[in-house]
Specification:
By secondary structure, the protein is mainly β. 5% of the residues lie in helices and 64% in strands. A 14-stranded antiparallel β-barrel has the order 2-3-4-6-7-8-9-12-13-14-15-16-17-18.
Length: 423
């Protein structure tokens, strides 16, 4: 128990560090909509292409399909924390750049309440905004010209605190997640006009503060074939909805001559409107097949972003998204006393159309994953996944992103409600 407490403390420290120091994303594509949609996959799923809808495991927490909580056995408490690190190489038709991101994937817990009822709760990101784009231009009037620089900066994101429940009877399980969504999407534009000793500076900041609830329903059915093969089919559904939001705007301009500011004026500093940010109808289907040594699964997920409104305005850059995933896991012998025979080896891939339609092009995202699961004697499992992916293209004046990821997931299992015997 002492060793488990140390692991738990380490996980909480990692979680706290992640909240204070994480750099969620540096993708220019996070400039649009609510930002870059966060990956909700955990643990084993990360090493198998992101399969999750039909994934049902007794010692893993799968928040994508809340029906899966019912697989957690009695007298067991599960705690998970995930950390992601990513390098991204950006390229256009004439430039290249790279960046490094670090973020908290999620923190989750789950346990069985009684024979038919299981619960889970936790915190995870929904979307991330993080970019810095510089533009240089010249303002001309006859023979007179002045250099003009504009910087576009975005920060923040949306997170959710959720509580989930799952009910099961024989092979059928249903569940739901109730999540409280909150966060700030901050976007600012800084413009500088410079002509020798004279400078004009304009700063425009727009914050969207979001706070509201959203629900997800899930279903799974499991059975066996020939008592050797177990299969699970599953699905999830989220209805189209709106998140309450406040649009806060701040605009300031200043002028300087010979390096000294001569005038500073705040033009706007107020909540200019309150309204809603639309969230799409989302759904997914998937299955897994489990044998003594193999686990194989495949998923399809989709979201109808084309129908959503942001402050009653339809954005022409949003379109429907979809994603297909498949993966496999191999374990030599779960019950062996040989440590190396109990390690899980995983691989998978995915292909998807994102929710962005820019310059007459739908942005695609594809990649492959590899992973291992390392069990320990103190009831903790360490899941590590490596991935390489490609998002976007250099065609039509767009940006191509080649990214390399390392995902670490710590899974702590502890026994509850065990009557101790003393002699």
């Amino acid at each position: 128990m002492r060793n488990k407490f140390l692991i738990f403390t380490l996980a909480v420290l990692l979680f706290s560090f992640g909240l204070s120091a994480q750099i969620n994303t540096s993708s220019p594509y996070s400039r649009f909509g609510i930002g870059e949609i966060a990956n909700q996959n955990l643990g084993r799923s990360n090493g198998m292409g992101g399969i999750s809808t039909g994934l049902r495991l007794p010692f893993e927490i799968n928040t994508v399909n809340p029906a899966s909580y019912s697989a957690i056995p009695s007298k067991v408490f599960l705690f998970q924390v995930g950390i992601n690190a990513q390098r991204t190489d950006y390229s256009t038709s004439n430039t290249e750049a790279k960046n490094y991101d670090f973020n908290l994937a999620s923190i989750n817990a789950a346990f069985r309440v009684n024979k038919y009822w299981n619960m889970s709760f936790g915190l995870s990101p929904v979307s991330n905004v993080g970019y810095k784009i510089e533009s240089f231009d010249t303002i001309s009037n006859g023979n007179y010209s002045v250099p003009f620089k504009t910087v576009y900066i975005g920060e923040g994101g949306i997170s959710k605190i959720y509580i989930g429940n799952s009910l099961s009877y024989k092979g059928l399980a249903v569940g739901f997640n109730a999540g409280y969504y909150f966060g700030t999407l901050s976007r600012r534009t800084e413009s500088l006009l410079s002509d020798g000793s004279y400078q004009s500076y304009l700063k425009d900041v727009e914050d969207l503060k979001i706070k509201d609830f959203r629900f997800r329903l899930g279903m799974q059915y499991s059975d066996s074939i020939f008592k050797k093969i177990t299969y699970t089919i599953g699905g999830f559904f989220e209805n189209k909805g709106d998140l309450n939001a406040d649009n806060i705007k701040f605009t300031r301009r200043s002028f300087s001559l010979n390096g000294e500011t001569t005038l500073t004026d705040t033009i706007i500093s107020d909540t200019i409107k309150s309204g809603t940010i639309g969230m799409p109808m989302s759904y997914g289907f998937g299955f897994t097949i489990v044998t003594k040594q193999f686990l194989f699964g495949a998923d399809m997920k989709a979201s109808n972003w084309k129908d959503v409104l942001i402050f009653k305005e339809k954005k022409n850059y949003l379109t429907n998204s979809s994603r297909f995933s498949a993966g496999v896991e191999y374990t030599n012998d779960y019950t062996s006393k040989n440590f190396f025979k109990t390690i899980n080896f995983r691989m998978g891939g995915y292909y998807g159309n994102t929710n962005l339609f820019l310059n007459n092009t739908q942005i695609k995202d594809m990649g492959v994953n590899f992973g291992i699961g390392i069990p320990t004697k103190i009831g903790t499992k360490i899941n590590i996944a490596f991935g390489v992916g490609q998002r976007g293209t250099t065609n039509n004046n767009l940006i191509s992103e080649r990214y390399y990821t390392i995902k670490l997931n710590l899974n702590l299992t502890d026994r509850w409600f065990i009557r101790r015997k003393f002699f």
